[in-house]
DNA sequence: TTCACAACCGAGCCTAGTAG
DNA sequence: CTACTAGGCTCGGTTGTGAA
């Protein structure tokens, strides 16, 4: 059946059929057999519906069957009067069902990278297991924990299935056994998993020198030459740093200096090995130049790009990609001069603290929006984070405060300044206060709506 | 028949744009 | 400054499918 938004007449047809059905079902049985009615369509035209609904058997008189009868009759009627959209009814407002953006259409539009999807699923499982292991290792009584106690950790680790099933599912990780004396079910790490954890900690110890190089490179990229230790802590898993990297690396090696408890600095940045200042991508570019005979113009700012399986390349995409690959940007180890980000091809490209920033323009009704949000994208390290909605988010206490101050009829701008006074680190903007007020109002409305 | 996995689907949250 | 809404995103539950 065609979708409604493509067939506007179907909307009218169905609405008239439903109207006819709602009258028909209230009629006594004797009048139901031969049913005649007049329905009025959206344009005001009266449509005669004569329909024989027979035989009156309960099985055949269900809603769908009767509606089918009406629809076929109305189709004939419509054909006869030739109701069409046009000057006759063009002043009336028609609202078509807009194409729904559902998970289905989203999935259809998306190019799935199954490898990455699987990787993320497995990573999620691994994190769950590791957080369970972390909780298990905090127990003092021994190398095993009662499953009953573990079941209380479901909320802590974010487990949404019963713990018993989860432990049984990963038998190679968890060893479930009855306690020899108490006979309650206990759990300990399987020997295979213990070996894996030991192997991982050995690898981390052996990687110490690599980790030193890695942190050095990060500090070289940093515009100020310093890094927050908390930032390193947040990415320690990705960087492969040990838990005690502050003591075992930052304090141990004389290349680093702790400015204070939370900031680390690189000593004698200029005396560093020149090889360290070469990004891996430069090696790839050199290879491209020599192996593919590409010019410097083509490869100077290019990056290796891999598309997920099944990625559909649209017409003109390759050309745009080629243009984008040529856009200049400040390289991470270049400190001299400030580069002005180009806006050629509707795409901006710049390096922000060592990360590549790519901004594509939003499109509306097929036209590219000409507005450039920030023409000077290349800038020094952001001192304020208002541009990032995540850091602007109000805490629960602050949201509560917005609610209380709104009830006291305080102006949003004053609410904002009050919050900022209480918490000088707060980087929220007036927009966030409006949104918070809107949210509170919606919550109140939902509470008063009779269900 | 059971189990694991992939695909599907919709609810809900949040941000930001826009008209008035 | 408010009200409304589009769009992006995540999450959790359900359904379909194929292998053991």
Number of strands: 12
By DSSP (H or I, 4+ residues per run), the number of helices equals: 20
Structural class of the helix and strand makeup?
Answer: alpha+beta
What is the second-level CATH architecture of the largest domain?
Answer: Orthogonal Bundle
The name of the CATH topology of the largest domain is Arc Repressor Mutant, subunit A
Question: How much of the residues is beta strand, in percent?
Answer: 5-15%
Domain PORR: 112-346
Keywords: Signal
Pfam families: PORR
GO molecular function: RNA binding
Outline:
This protein is of the alpha+beta class.
What does this structure look like?
This is PORR domain-containing protein. This protein is of the alpha+beta class. The protein is built from 20 helices and twelve strands. It has a three-stranded antiparallel β-sheet with strand order 3-5-4. A three-stranded antiparallel β-sheet has the order 6-8-7. Helix 1 packs across helix 3 and helix 18 packs across helix 19. The protein is extended and about 100 Å long. It binds a DNA duplex (20 and 20 nucleotides) through helix 4, helix 5 and helix 20.
Question: Topology, please?
Answer:
Layout: H1 8-24, H2 29-32, E1 34-40, E2 46-52, H3 63-81, H4 103-109, H5 114-137, E3 144-146, H6 147-151, H7 154-157, H8 163-169, E4 174-178, E5 185-189, H9 191-206, H10 208-221, E6 226-228, H11 229-234, H12 236-239, H13 245-250, E7 256-260, E8 263-266, H14 280-292, H15 296-299, H16 317-326, E9 347-352, E10 355-360, E11 363-364, E12 367-368, H17 389-392, H18 396-407, H19 412-422, H20 430-448
Antiparallel strand pairs: 1-2, 3-5, 4-5, 6-8, 7-8, 9-10, 11-12
The structure holds a DNA duplex (20 and 20 nucleotides).
């Amino acid at each position: 059946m065609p979708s409604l938004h493509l067939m506007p007449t179907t909307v009218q047809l169905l609405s008239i059929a439903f109207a006819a059905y709602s009258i028909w079902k209230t009629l006594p049985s004797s009048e139901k057999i031969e049913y005649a009615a007049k329905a009025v369509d959206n344009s005001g035209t009266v449509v005669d519906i004569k329909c024989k609904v027979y035989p009156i058997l309960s099985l055949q008189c269900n809603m769908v069957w009767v509606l089918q009868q009406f629809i076929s009759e109305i189709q004939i009627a419509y054909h006869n009067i030739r109701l069409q959209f046009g000057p006759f009814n063009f002043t009336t407002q028609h609202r078509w069902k807009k194409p729904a953006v559902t998970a289905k259409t989203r999935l259809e539009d998306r190019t799935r990278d199954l490898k990455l999807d699987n990787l993320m699923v497995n990573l999620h499982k691994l994190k769950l297991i590791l957080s369970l292991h972390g909780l298990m290792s905090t127990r003092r009584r021994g190398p095993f924990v009662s499953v009953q106690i573990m079941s209380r950790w479901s909320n802590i680790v974010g487990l949404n299935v019963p713990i018993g099933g989860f432990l049984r599912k990963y038998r190679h990780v968890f060893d479930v056994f009855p306690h020899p004396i108490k006979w309650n079910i206990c759990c300990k790490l399987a020997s295979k998993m213990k070996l894996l954890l030991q192997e991982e900690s050995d690898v981390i110890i052996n990687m110490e020198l690599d980790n030193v190089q890695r942190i050095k490179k990060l500090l070289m990229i940093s515009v100020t030459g310093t890094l927050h230790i908390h930032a390193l802590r947040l990415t320690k898993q990705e960087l492969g740093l040990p838990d005690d990297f502050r003591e075992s690396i930052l304090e141990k090696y004389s290349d680093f200096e702790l400015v204070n408890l939370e900031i680390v600095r690189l000593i004698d940045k200029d005396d560093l090995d020149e090889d360290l200042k070469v990004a891996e991508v430069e090696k790839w570019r050199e290879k491209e130049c020599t192996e593919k005979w590409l010019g410097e113009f083509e490869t100077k700012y290019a990056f290796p790009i891999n598309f997920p399986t099944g990625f559909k390349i649209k017409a003109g995409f390759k050309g745009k990609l080629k243009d984008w690959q040529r856009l200049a940007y400040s390289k991470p180890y270049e400190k001299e001069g400030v580069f002005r980000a180009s806006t050629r091809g509707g795409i901006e490209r710049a390096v922000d603290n060592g990360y590549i920033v790519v901004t594509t323009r939003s499109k509306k009704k097929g036209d590219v929006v000409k507005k450039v949000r920030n023409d000077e994208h290349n800038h020094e390290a952001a001192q304020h984070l208002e541009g990032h909605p995540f850091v602007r988010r109000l805490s629960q206490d602050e949201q509560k405060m917005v609610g209380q101050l709104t009830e006291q009829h305080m102006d949003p701008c004053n609410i904002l300044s009050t919050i900022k006074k209480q918490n000088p680190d707060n980087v929220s903007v007036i927009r966030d206060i409006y949104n918070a007020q809107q949210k509170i109002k919606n919550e109140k409305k939902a509470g008063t709506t009779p269900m």
